[in-house]
Amino acid sequence: MSKKMSGASSLVQSLESAGVDVMFGLPGGAILPAYDPIFDSKIRHILVRHEQGAGHAATGYAQVTGRVGVCIATSGPGATNLVTPLADAAMDSVPMVAITGQVPSVAIGTDAFQEADIRGITMPFTKHNYLITDPKDIPRAIAEAFYIAGSGRPGPVLVDIAKDALQKETDFVYPKELSLPGYHPQLEPENQYIKDAAALIAQSSKPVFYVGGGVIKSNASKELMQLAELVGAPVVTTLMALGSFPDSHPQHLGMPGMHGTVAAVTSLQKADLLITLGARFDDRVTGKLSTFAVNAKVIHADIDPAEIGKNRFADVPIVGDLKRTIAALIPAVKAEFAKNKADLTPWIASMNKLRATYPLGYELPKDGSLSPQYVIERISALTGPEGIYVAGVGQHQMWASQFVKYENPRTWLNSGGLGTMGYAVPAAMGAKVGAPDATVWAIDGDGCFQMTNQELVTCALNNIPIKVAIINNESLGMVRQWQTLFYEGRYSNTSLDSKRVPDFVKLAEAMGCVGLSCERPEDVDAIIKQANAINDQPVVVDFRVFRDAMVWPMVAAGTSNDDIMIAREMAPDWDSQEL
Amino acid sequence: MSTHTLSVLVENSPGVLARVAGLFSRRAYNIDSLAVGPTENPDISRMTIVINVESHSLEQVIRQLDKLVNVIHIAELKLAESVQAELLLVKISATSKNRFDVDAVLETYGASIVDEGADYMTIEATGDAAKISDLLNALERFGIRELAQSGLVAIERGSGSLADRTLSTQSIPTADSGQADYQN
Question: B56 to chain A nearest CA, in Å?
Fold first, then answer.
């Protein structure tokens, strides 16, 4: 059955047919025709203050719900403001559909007002994109966009629609079937590789589960727990995987990588087998690649065949959905264990000793000022593992990855791959929309916060009561840390003076939020409790923290994981460890 | 470093050349030549890409290429198993004095004259890279004024067709909702 309607109505009906319940956007000239039927649609449209906010909000929503996040903007600057969130979603494999208006088809290529070739611009970091000039193509493009964004390795898809295609009359028919001859994600792992992997696991005496964000995308935490407990090997979870395996589990060694725990980093370095599940051997995890896990064989399971062998050779490559892959590995490993199983006891004991000797920790500032790590630790303790934690990028992000205790998947959101400062506030907004009953804390830096805080207005006006902890060290803290370590303390352009300007409390109040400030360690708990008790308004807490706190441990960029430092000029005491 | 010829079937849709070229550029893969043209199926174009693999494995290039939604199929065409040809148009200086010598060269390489005047001639030739290169060497002494050369095109030997074997018409039900959980 087809119905006559405008291209714009066809777009909105297509979005409804695709199951969209909320979208984040901001209208403008070229997309204006679409906003008329949006006015009557059952889809909740949240009017943001900047299109970048719409994009990150869609990402936050998607990461919390597992559904496809949707954002919408006009042509030209509206569309280019989505570029950062699209690149961010591509790097972190977040399912997202972005709709943009385009100048009328006859004006395309003429440098028309608010024209930008957003399809061309976004080709490198969308999973796919479309330019639609004929209204009859709208339903198919939308249906394909949602399928492509949400299936296989998730990612962002952009649909750019010329204004005249929105205005013209068309027949609306939502496709029942899609034909994408060049797109067939392989979900089912090959049995032979499952068997090969199981055999390697049974032989290994020093195996480690190297778990990445793919486990969360494929909702495979339950299966991971079964497999991990069956094998008994240590588990490390990357920055994108925090929460996929409980921090409190005795097999969990923490996060590997540049600011990972000594135990997690060392376990990869000393392992004889990496059981890699939905991780991609990112440089922040491997350190200097040629010195990474040199004695380990690699099982690499990922839904994206191009990830396998990209950075590190895989002895056993397994392409497929992780939930199915892990589910298939469980009986295969059991069958192998019935025949033989290497003794892991010495390996586990040495890793447990490392974990006990080098736990994550921090020194309290000697001047009695507020420790940023302490603030984050207390937010976690007082909010609990059911809360959702969203970070920006920098020191506060790393501390939030280290000192919040994660027990559940989809409770930790951050910009891992692209490292987008300003991610936290809008992503937290999207997360709260996706999980309205959860307490959502944006743990942000004073630098990041000043990039995107305008979305607190959106939160205040749309009943999206997020909480923001500004870890205010009045600097671009991570850059400052590098200047301390690698540039002889020459602090070029990293001082923000944000304990003087702006006044974050007043700024919060001006945006319709509750603004609080905290400077003394003894006030931290009371203020967090006060913030947690407010559920009808966004809350911003300006935690005015010690400026010179640093993130440790650290593997300096480009160096080997073997050179991990637990504090400035302090390496672990390897001689006392038997590895 | 080794050279490989990839035959890539792509959807005949706008922007597909930009997608492929952009991928090669941003991942720092080296393209020696790229030729695009129609196939027997109006919905499908064929790109013949000659790549030089240095720091990346051929496998990695193919897998990245395969991620492009508009790319339908990729096959490596080995020299022994395919017919490969480039097209050369070359304008040389030719006078009545050396006409005879030129004709002899052209005959050897099966090349033909497609345009000529009092002091020049434009020659058309096809063949694999070695033959074209040899021909150019042979013509050099007459003075090459200008040349235009296509990328390599290639086709599998034998009666089979890449498209027949690889094009599935498999379709995907949209279910009731684009928000369906496709993965599980």
Answer: 8
